[in-house]
Automatic annotation (TrEMBL):
Protein species of origin: Actinomadura miaoliensis
Subcellular location: Cell membrane; Cytoplasm; Membrane
Identification of the protein by name: Protein translocase subunit SecA
Pfam hit, one: SecA_DEAD
Positions bound to ATP: 87, 105-109, 493
Length: 781
C-alpha cells in the first residue's frame, strides 16, 4: 500500500477501504477461469446454484473466487463482455457493504449485477434502486440473461406497474426499481387493511445506483401518500394583482432570492386593489396569505428554471438532475399559486396520510451498498448518515482526460460569448462537444446563440428527457454539439464516434474509423457553463469524457455574476483588471468562485443534518405505531384489546355474529383509527415545525429542542387516543344473523389516494428558513 493510502487510513479519510483482500480474490478467480470456461451452460448454472445451497451469508474469502469466476464466464457468454479485474473488485466492494466509486464508462451496471447475483445466491433478496423508470427496466432486461445463467430470477418495477405486477416483481431474487417507487409501495403497504394486499417483502439488501444522488441529493425529500380532498385552487385575482407589482417599489427580495416581501407602498397598493381592506387585520389573514404565496410564485419561481409547463400542467425540475421530477410538487398552497400564475387548471391536493424520507427508506435495509462515479465528495455524509465507507476502484485504463483550469469572466455576457467561441473552434475541427448547462432556460438561450452562429446543436433538458438515451449516445459523433442540463443519472455511455452502447441492440457500434478520428482530435470536449452548487456535480459532468482510457478534455466557464456567486458570496469583491474580452485571471477572483461553492456545500450539509434530526424523531414514533398496526393486521391484537376495553359489547356481538366476524370488525376499526390518528399527528408536527422557528427567534431557544418538547408527548398520547376512539366506535356496532354491521361505524377512508414527492419550499420554508443565517456565517469565515 502506498504511503499516501496508509496515511488516509490512519486519519480515517474517505476512500480508505483496503482493496488488497479483494485483489487476492480476483487473482485466484483468474486461476479458475479455464476450468469454468470448460463447463457447459447447464453445468455453469448448476455450479452457481450450488453456491446458494452452501451459503447463508454474502461470499466469504473461501467461495468468492468461485463466484467471481462463474460470474465472469456467465457475462462473457450472455452479454459478450468479459468483466475486467477492476469490475470484479467493484462487485466485491459492494458485497462487502461499501459504496464503490468507479469512473463513468467503467461498467457499473455489470458490476451491480454481479454483486446482486452474489447476494441473491446467499439467500438475500436484493432491491437494486435506480433514479428513474428507464434505467430500472433497461438494466433488468439487459442483465437478465446473466442472472438466468447464474440461476437468479430478476424483475423490474416502474411507475405504471400494477399491484399484481409489483407483487410478482418483488418476489424475484433481484428487483430493479426507482427508489421513489419502492418508497411509494412501502407507504401503500403501511395503510393496507388486508395482508393479501401487501406488495413489499421484508427488506434485505439495498444496492443503490447513483448512490450519491439517491443518498444525499434526495435523502431529505419526503415521499408522500395523500388522500382525496378538495382541489386547492388559488384565486387568479391574486396572481394578476402581484403581476402588476414592481420590484423595489412594491416588493423587495433578499440577496439570495429565497424570500420576498411587500414594501409599505406595495401593501397599500394591494389593499387598494382589494377594495380598501386592512391587509393586516385579523379578519383578512387569508387574503394576506394568498397575496404572499402568489408573490412568492411570481417572483421566486422561474419558468424553465424551477419548473416547466408541459401538457397543461406545471412540472417541477429536479435541480440535481436537470430533468422533470416525476410526481413532484410543492406544498399545496404554492403549487396552486404557480398554477394560477400560469393560468392552468388546479391539480388535486389532499391530506397527507403518511410520508417517508429516502434516507429513512434506505435505512430499513439491513444491508446497504451502492455505486457511483462521485462518492468521495460526500463521503462524510455517507459515513454520518448511513455508516457507509468508500471503496475507490481504479479505472481499467488510466484516465488521460485533460481538465483545463476554469476560465473566469467578469460578466455573464462575456462568459457566454467565450463559450460560443470555444464551441465554434472545436466544431471547426470536427471534435464533438458536450455542453453542460445549469438549467433549462440557459440551455435554450445557449442553443439560440449557437443557431445564430451557424452551429447546429441538439438540446437535452427537462423538456425532452424522454429522448435522452439516443441523444447522449450520439454525443460522441464527429462534429456533434450536444447541450444538456445536469448529466447525473443520465445512465448512457458516450462512446467516441457516436456508437450506441450494446444495450440498444437495434443499432451497431460506431465504426472504428469514427472512433479513431474523434480520438485523434482529442476526444470528447466537455464544457461547463458554470460551477454547480456542488463540486460533485462538476465532476459528474467532467466524467463524461475520457471513458476507458479514451482521450478527452473538459473546461468550465464561470463569471462573477453567476447565481452561485450572487447567492453564496455576494459580499466578496474583486477589483483586479479584466482582459478586453472580460476574462479575469487573478487568483483572488477564482477564490471567490471556489469559496461560493464551498459555502453552498456547507449549507447543504447542515440542512441535511438538521432535516435528519427532525425526521429521526418522527421515524421513531412511526415505528411504534407500525408495530401495533402489524400486530393488528396479522393477528388478533385488536380483538383482544376491544374485548378488554368493552367486554360486555364484545360478548354481545360475539353471541349475535360469532367470533370471526367480530374479530374482523375489530381489526378494521383499530386499523382505521391508527391510520387516522397518525395522519392527524403528521399534520400537527408539520404545523409545529413550520412555526417553531418563530418561537426560537423570539426567545432565543433551540428550535429542535422546542420541537421535541411538544412532539414527544404528542407521540406518546397517539396510541392511547387511537385505542379510545376504536373502543368508542366498537360501542356503536350492531350485529345480527351472523354478521356485524360496519357501514354505520363511520370508517370512511379516502375515496382515492395518490403518491407524490414534496419539493422543499424554495423560498425557505422549514429547513431553508432555519438556515438563512448560515450563509452569512460561512461568508464571515
Amino acid at each position: 500500500m502506498a504511503l499516501r493510502d496508509r496515511l488516509r487510513r490512519l486519519l480515517q479519510r474517505p476512500g480508505t477501504v483496503d482493496l488488497r483482500p479483494f485483489e487476492a480474490v480476483v487473482a485466484e478467480a483468474a486461476t479458475r477461469e479455464p476450468e469454468v470456461r470448460a463447463l457447459s451452460d447447464e453445468a455453469l448454472t448448476t455450479a452457481a446454484l450450488s453456491l446458494r445451497e452452501e451459503r447463508t451469508e454474502p461470499p466469504s474469502a473461501r467461495d468468492s473466487p468461485e463466484l467471481c469466476a462463474l460470474g465472469r464466464e456467465a457475462a462473457r457468454r450472455t452479454l459478450g463482455e468479459r468483466p475486467y479485474d477492476v469490475q470484479l473488485l467493484g462487485a466485491l466492494g459492494l458485497l462487502s457493504g461499501h459504496v464503490v466509486e468507479m469512473a463513468t464508462g467503467e461498467g457499473k451496471t455489470l458490476v451491480g449485477a454481479l454483486a446482486a447475483a452474489g447476494y441473491a445466491l446467499s439467500g438475500r433478496r436484493v432491491h437494486v434502486m435506480s433514479v428513474n423508470d428507464y434505467l430500472a427496466r433497461r438494466d433488468a432486461e439487459w442483465m437478465g440473461p446473466l442472472y438466468a445463467m447464474l440461476g437468479v430470477t430478476v424483475a423490474w418495477v416502474g411507475q405504471s406497474s400494477t399491484p399484481d405486477e409489483r407483487r410478482r416483481a418483488y418476489a424475484a431474487d433481484v428487483t430493479y426499481a426507482p427508489v421513489s417507487e419502492v418508497g411509494f409501495d412501502l407507504l401503500r403497504d403501511r395503510l393496507a387493511t388486508d395482508p393479501a394486499d401487501l406488495v413489499l417483502p421484508e427488506p434485505g439488501v439495498a444496492l443503490i445506483d447513483e448512490a450519491d444522488s439517491v443518498l444525499v441529493d434526495e435523502a431529505r425529500v419526503p415521499l408522500v401518500l395523500a388522500g382525496a380532498a378538495d382541489v386547492a385552487s388559488a384565486d387568479p385575482t391574486y396572481a394578476e394583482l402581484v403581476r402588476r407589482l414592481r420590484p423595489g417599489l412594491h416588493y423587495t427580495a433578499d440577496e439570495e432570492a429565497r424570500n420576498v416581501q411587500l414594501t409599505a407602498t406595495g401593501a397599500r397598493a394591494v389593499e387598494h386593489a382589494l377594495g380598501g381592506i386592512d391587509l393586516y387585520a385579523p379578519e383578512h389573514l387569508d387574503a394576506l396569505t394568498a397575496v404572499n404565496v402568489a408573490l412568492h410564485a411570481e417572483v421566486l419561481l422561474q419558468r424553465d428554471v424551477d419548473y416547466i409547463v408541459r401538457d397543461g400542467a406545471v412540472k417541477l425540475v429536479n435541480a440535481s438532475r436537470g430533468r422533470v421530477a416525476l410526481l413532484q410538487r410543492w406544498p399545496d398552497g404554492l403549487q396552486a399559486a404557480v398554477e394560477a400564475k400560469e393560468a392552468l387548471e388546479a391539480s388535486p391536493s389532499g391530506e397527507i396520510l403518511d410520508s417517508i424520507t429516502v434516507q429513512e427508506l434506505v435505512g430499513r435495509y439491513p444491508v446497504r451498498c451502492g455505486m457511483t462515479g462521485t462518492a468521495l465528495a460526500v463521503a462524510g455524509q455517507l459515513r454520518e448518515f448511513y455508516d457507509l465507507e468508500i471503496a475507490v476502484i481504479p479505472p481499467n485504463r488510466p484516465c488521460v482526460r485533460v481538465d483545463e483550469p476554469d476560465r473566469l469572466y467578469a460578466t455573464a455576457a462575456d462568459k457566454e460569448v467565450a463559450i460560443v467561441d470555444e464551441i465554434a473552434a472545436a466544431h471547426a475541427t470536427g471534435r464533438p462537444v458536450l455542453v453542460g448547462t445549469l438549467d433549462v432556460a440557459e440551455s435554450e438561450r445557449l442553443a439560440r446563440r449557437l443557431d445564430r452562429a451557424g452551429l447546429p446543436c441538439v438540446v437535452l433538458n427537462a423538456k425532452n428527457d424522454a429522448e435522452e438515451a439516443a441523444i447522449i449516445a450520439r454525443a460522441g459523433a464527429p462534429g456533434a454539439i450536444t447541450v444538456s442540463t445536469q448529466m447525473a443519472g443520465r445512465g448512457t455511455d458516450i462512446r467516441l464516434g457516436g456508437g450506441v452502447p450494446p444495450t440498444a441492440a437495434s443499432s451497431a457500434p460506431s465504426p472504428a474509423a469514427d472512433h479513431d478520428r474523434v480520438a485523434g482530435l482529442g476526444g470528447l470536449l466537455v464544457i461547463g457553463t458554470g460551477r454547480h452548487p456542488s463540486s460533485r456535480l462538476d465532476d459528474q459532468l467532467r466524467g463524461r469524457a475520457g471513458r476507458q482510457g479514451d482521450p478527452g478534455g473538459s473546461v468550465f466557464f464561470a463569471s462573477l455574476e453567476d447565481d452561485l456567486v450572487a447567492r453564496y458570496a455576494p459580499d466578496e469583491s474583486h477589483d483586479g483588471p479584466a482582459a478586453p474580452d472580460g476574462r479575469v485571471d487573478a487568483k483572488g477572483a477564482h477564490w471567490i468562485v471556489d469559496h461560493a461553492q464551498r459555502v453552498a456545500e456547507g449549507v447543504d450539509m447542515e440542512i441535511h443534518r438538521n432535516t435528519w434530526r427532525y425526521h429521526h424523531l418522527i421515524s421513531l414514533q412511526r415505528r411504534e405505531v407500525l408495530a401495533e398496526r402489524d400486530a393488528v393486521l396479522h393477528g388478533d391484537a385488536a380483538d383482544r384489546l376491544l374485548a378488554d376495553l368493552r367486554p360486555e359489547q364484545h360478548a354481545r356481538l360475539v353471541e349475535a355474529a360469532g367470533p370471526e366476524p367480530v374479530a374482523a370488525a375489530a381489526r378494521q376499526i383499530m386499523l382505521f383509527h391508527l391510520d387516522r390518528c397518525w395522519a392527524e399527528h403528521l399534520a400537527f408536527l408539520a404545523d409545529l415545525r413550520e412555526g417553531i422557528h418563530l418561537r426560537s427567534l423570539g426567545r432565543g431557544l433551540d428550535p429542535l429542542v422546542e420541537f421535541n418538547r411538544e412532539a414527544v408527548p404528542a407521540g406518546k398520547r397517539l396510541l392511547g387516543r387511537a385505542r379510545d376512539r376504536a373502543a368508542d366506535t366498537f360501542d356503536t356496532l350492531e350485529a345480527s344473523d351472523g354478521r356485524v354491521d360496519m357501514p354505520g361505524a363511520g370508517l370512511a377512508r379516502p375515496s382515492a389516494t395518490w403518491t407524490y414527492v414534496v419539493h422543499d419550499n424554495p423560498f425557505g420554508s422549514l429547513d431553508e428558513r432555519a438556515f438563512r443565517g448560515l450563509v452569512a456565517m460561512f461568508r464571515r469565515r
